[in-house]
Amino acid sequence: MKKVLKPKTSHEVLPSFGKAKVHRFVLPNGLRLFVQESKLAPIFSYQTWYDVGSRDEEPGLSGIAHLFEHMMFKETKNMRQGVFDKTMESNGARDLNAFTSTDYTAYVQSLPIEALDLVAKLESERMCHLLLTKKQFESEREVVHNERRQRNENNPEGQMFEELQKLAFKVHPYGRPVIGFEEDLNRMTTADCEKFYGEFYTPNNAVISVVGDVKPEKVLAIITKHYGKVAPSKITRPEIQVEPEQREEKVLNMSLNVQVEKAYMAYKIPIADHPDQTPISVLAAILSTGRSSRLYRALVDKGVTIDIGAGANPGKDAGLFYVTFSAQAGKKASDAIKAIDDEFATIMNKPISEEELRRAKNKLQTEFFMGLGTNSARANFVAQNEIVLGDYKKAVRALEELEEVTAEDVMRVTKSYFQKTNRSMVIGKPV
């Protein structure tokens, strides 16, 4: 009789930055664990990222991923409501937080190294034994309703952003607000949450990222103890409808409770791991990073707008590059839009100088490394990019790709993605 061999945990030592290394383990149940040693202080960051966001919601159930984030802090089989937070805080937890996006949901905390086993125990408890009672569900749904009213319905900027997403995406789920539509929240049931939990909150859909004064083998032993016997689930995601190619500009004017005219502009850009993302990031730095940036000089310095921002939000699917501003009192949004169009046209028709290109690259490199200054930031970097890009090492290689970007690359992506026909825009005007 043949001996049946149980699958083993795989282990790779992968590059990070400088001499730093990332240890990647994959348990037999599919759980991905990333561990980085950092001896700066006897603390660690522990983050659990689930590969599920608003993108993965069933039609008619928008907001369930975010609502479920709230439910994860409720009662479990072995913990009464409130015990999780109190236990974390009594053990010195900092950065205790959770957040939901279009592509993922994350739960994060930082603690002294003595609490590593405890955190793993509590997080595995939440993954496996959450109790979804009708009372708690209805209570948290009302909390989300209040949050929606505060952030979206009673907030002019929130209204504009929600309408912009709907304008840009007619069929793709990125057009739905992460917080959900009111009518969808109202129709949800505890049964919907139970189905969502059973399907997506499972080891083969999770990434755990630990950074701090820890030994990779010890972390693996603790994770295996608390998660190793958890069975994987069969994950079925809704079919994602492909957004039709945009062939004309979309504009929505809104009368809002604002003091000055505002605009939210969005241009369609490719998926996060597309090679054009790097020159697009260079373009963003050229446009709006610092007081020497083109849009700052053309708009803020000349008294047209109070502020200006530009940047990409790439995801698993084609996303958006945003340009936003608030006009100066007495100025029209149309004045600012013309100035923005002029700057894009200039870059489309004349290569930027090598000096400006170098300055943009330097800014991006500085921001990048300053953004990795804490255990929490490094844990976030690995987990987020592992889910969105499918492999965090692609984000590591992005720095090498940054050096290869030319002025012609910046010109090319500007021509490719920043035409008016590829733009959606919401303009807010005082009532």
Compact description:
The chain has 431 residues and is of the alpha+beta class.
How is this structure best described in words?
The protein is of the alpha+beta class and 431 residues long. It folds into 2 domains: 218 residues, Cytochrome Bc1 Complex, Chain A, domain 1 (2-Layer Sandwich); 181 residues, 2-Layer Sandwich (Cytochrome Bc1 Complex, Chain A, domain 1). It contains 15 helices and 12 strands. Strands 1-2-3-7-4-6-5 form a 7-stranded mixed β-sheet, with helices on both faces. It has a 5-stranded mixed β-sheet with strand order 8-12-9-11-10, with helices on both faces. Helix 10 packs antiparallel against helix 11. The radius of gyration is 23 Å and the shape is globular. The N terminus is likely disordered.
List keywords for this structure.
single chain; 431 residues; alpha+beta; Cytochrome Bc1 Complex, Chain A, domain 1; seven-stranded mixed β-sheet; five-stranded mixed β-sheet; 12 strands
Average per-residue pLDDT, rounded, comes to 95
Query: How many separate helices?
Result: 15
**What structural category characterises the helix and strand content?**
alpha+beta
Q: What is the number of E strands? A: 12
Into how many domains do the coordinates divide?
2
Helix share of residues? 40-55%
CATH topology of the largest domain: Cytochrome Bc1 Complex, Chain A, domain 1
Largest sheet: 7 strands, mixed
Beta percentage is 15-25%
Q: CATH superfamily name of the largest domain?
A: Metalloenzyme, LuxS/M16 peptidase-like
Shape: globular
